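question for whoever is on the cluster today: can someone run the full assembly for these? three chains, 494 residues total. i dont have access anymore since they changed the login thing
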Amino acid sequence: MNLRFPIHLALAALALAVATITPTVAADTPDPAADAKAFRDYFATKFPNVKLEDFANGPYAMDEDMRRQWEEKEQFAPYEFSLDMGKEMFAKPFKNGKSYADCFPNQGIGIRQNYPYFDAKEGKVITLELALNLCREANGEPPFSYVGDEMAALTAYMAFTSRDKLFNIEIPDDPRALEAYQNGKRYFYTRRGQLNFSCATCHVQNPGERLRAEILAPALGILNAMPIYRSEWGGMGTISRRLTTCNSQIRAVPLEPQADEYRDLEYYLSYVSNGLPISGPGSRP
Amino acid sequence: MNMTSHVVRLFSLGLVLMSATSAPAATSEADFSTAYAAAEAADKEAGRLRNQWTVTAEALADAKKAADKGDFDRAVASAKEAEALAKASIVQATSEKEAWKNLEIR
Amino acid sequence: MASTIRVRAISSGETTEVQVLIQHPMDSGFVKDAKGEIIPPHFIQQLTFEHDGRNVFIADWGAAVSKDPYVKFSFKGGNKGDDLKMSWVDNKGETDNTTAKIQ
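^ ran it for u. tokens below:
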């Protein structure tokens, strides 16, 4: 026999326990500004020697040896090939003569820190990846896979043009935007998969600790370095790729890339990292 | 709440209950069909809640593979395991609707 | 097509420090693709750096070196403005080479 039977029995018992002793929680009117402050304070308290902007460097802010190796690699960063490809792709016009620059404010340069944003007309969160494919489709081009190399290269280039700019995510005074924010927050803290982890389990409760051979990054600033060249992947990978693979790793069936939950999650995580610099594209083990 | 002792207590509860069950004697294709249908239905419900587990799909595939080979003992066992996993994922989705707040940074 | 080799060589008077990043799949021949078929081995077998007519660094590589390899080493000598030649050859007989100026 294996461990699955006791685990799902344990879960059934847990459900029963939760039903009987659920603590009363304050009314669900989200206060994003208060959340963001609490988020920053939590990590500042946990890591008093880490400067606020350094959280954008994830595991390298958590471990001296890793930082040394990373700084050395940055002199000749592994993401350079993908970055060059992204720059070329961004400049190349579509078949109809238009280009990505026509779809974005400021020609698409130095704007990554404003994504995701809430589109009032569409009534949903628009991430940079989604915006790129919407641009392609509006100009008669087939969309790129959200987990493939092309999307990674494009977002790498756009992140690069925003390096050191501070995350500046806005939540307009619109109940739908607040709902998207709250959905993202809920997703972040919800346990899922057979391993019963939430994003918070690793990135809030255990940053700086080891998960097998990896050192866990703090949730604060975790999207600032995206997209990332992962040595594990041998290449550049998008936010969509990271979210879906993370789901599989905890034995949850991933949702479709850029699903509502993922976009809302990105919205929440980016907002609570407002004020931290874009460090992408990044490199990670 | 101390999560570690809570989990340990629940885990031991699970172990005690596990030893109380007995192995089923089903071996026919009809038994497999019933078990598989139940497992699939539960996994579909988990899908509706957008909270399926990868291991559920693996158990379902294992059940189907065994049935194709005529090993209905294994097929039924895997199908029942898949159903249990799917049901656990439903419990998880349901309880997490409120439980997530316990992890939230405030 | 652009060169697969990026080199930076910096002289500090007595020694020259060289860093190089090479774009190469470095397939070991042990990995299967999504269809379950082996991706054939395709990796650099020899890497050579030459300065002033002599080889300052030779590497014999095998399947264990990862994709897009990065190398860093130092050698005695080398002045600003000198040429540093670098070439590689892989198991399929493909090659690339480049010449960089020592800074």
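summary bc i know u wont read the tokens: Chain B touches chain A at residues 6-7, 10-11, 13-15, 17-18, 47, 50-57, 81, 84-85, 87-89, 91-96, 98-106 (CB under 8 Å). Chain B has one domain: 26-102.
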